[in-house]
Amino acid sequence: MFESAETGHKIDKKTFDAQVPGLREDLLNAQYDLLQNGKFSVIIVIGGVDGAGKSETVSVLTEWMDPRHIQTHAFFEPSDEERERPCMWRFWRVLPPRGKIGILYGAWHTAPIVGRVMGNLKSADLDQAIEEIRHFEKMLSDEGALILKFWFHLSRQQQEKRLKELQQDPRTRWRVTDNDWKRFKNYDKFRKVSEYFLRQTSAAKAPWLVVEGLDHRYRSMTAGKLLLQAMRDRLDEKPVKALLDKIPPMLPQLDGKDILTTLSKARVMDKNKYEKELEKWQGRLNIITRHPGFRNISVVLLFEGQDAAGKGGAIRRVMGALDARIYQGVPIASPTEEERAQPYLWRFWRHLPRSGRFVIFDRSWYGRVLVERVEGFCSENDWGRAYAEINDFELQLVRNKTALVKFWLQIDKDEQLKRFKEREKTAFKRFKITAEDWRNREKWDQYHSAVCDMVDRTSTAIAPWNLIAADNKYAARIEVLKSVVKSIENALQK
């Protein structure tokens, strides 16, 4: 894979100086067309051999275009804040919005390669990381991002020569560290692992572009022209109807039975019994958050359910058991302009908690396969692929020692109508009922089908749905508290 990048490619100064002005003009035009178009982002991943000119290329590309619309990020050892979240969190935070260019130096490819070479990752762990990266990059490209991954390469002899040159020059001596020479001693291992990694993660919509890094003029010109060609091809292509990803068929309900219609009715609980149970389970929840092991896990609770199913009341009872310093409530409404400019899951990644903390979502990422599906706010292609993207997302949370607890609160249609009317009559509850709630009620059957599909496709062994019969509010709140306590206990045992 690297042979063609070891042939000694060079561009003479005269040719370089003659071509650069035109290339810079074309890159600027493409950049401003991208800004005006605003329909996709450009993600440039920079990787390769030490001393192959990665940072110099980043500087050149930034100089040749308008730096105000380029976001450049370099990734080193993760901080404490980053270590306490899934490994991809640090990359989600810096994704460029539509219309902008993001240059990511040492991105998601670095840790798996270095970890495998240094013996910190087993072969199976590397393959797992590769699979996660494939899914991540596919999701980005499905969301419209243009992904270019540059790998700047040097042969073993070229790298040794380059490192010595940098070390001997007083102006660049600081750039060569003991770690660079340590990695050089493992050159053959790095080459073998890198080649395997690149082959496994190079896809049609996220290819690796291997560039020889020996000659700075050749390196810069090649990177600039590849970037220009990719941007122009995307900007100039005629709009075409996206091919629909094949969505597995939804199960027909031939006998009228489904996961919701067969849900056991809520048990009746009077107020006196409720208050005793509430004190008991809130107390257990509070105590378990003080367990020494709790500082090593995080908790994500998400609440979904029909309008007026009691999500807010259940959330308040959970919050009432917690120290206000360790939780954050996140109500999810229609996405903002900032959020619409990013991949769908971006606005949820940004709220993930550190270790020893809770985040409680009132509505969640399941909006894509519920309200957006039913109301037509996204295409069938978008919500159809969302099931797999959500399962991948939740797998990453659980692997990072997150207790993920998902609730669907279910009430019947008559109970919902009763609660709607009560809200209209009660002055301090009127804000809870809107015209949209009544419109959603008219699509009860469509939402019912969407919920059944959601549970079928996203209730997994590691992140099962807790279906709560909520016609009796008291019983539902206690079931929620019990489920939260038991989930945290299980996480602590692991």
- What share of residues are in beta strands? 5-15%
What is the CATH topology classification name of the largest domain? Rossmann fold
End-to-end C-alpha gap: 42 Å
Structure summary, number of beta strands: 10
- What series of H and E elements makes up the topology? HEHEHHEHHEHHHEHHEHEHHEHHEHHHEH
Number of helices: 20
Mean pLDDT: 92
Given the helix and strand composition, which structural class is it? alpha/beta
Low-confidence segments, ≥5 residues, pLDDT <50?
A: none
Helix content: 40-55%
Q: For this structure, what is the CATH class of the largest domain? A: Alpha Beta
How many domains? The number is 2
Shape: elongated
CATH H level, superfamily name of the largest domain: P-loop containing nucleotide triphosphate hydrolases
Alpha carbon gyration radius: 27 Å
Query: How do the strands of the widest beta sheet line up side by side?
Result: 2-3-1-4-5
Report on the biggest sheet.
5 strands, parallel
CATH architecture of the largest domain: 3-Layer(aba) Sandwich
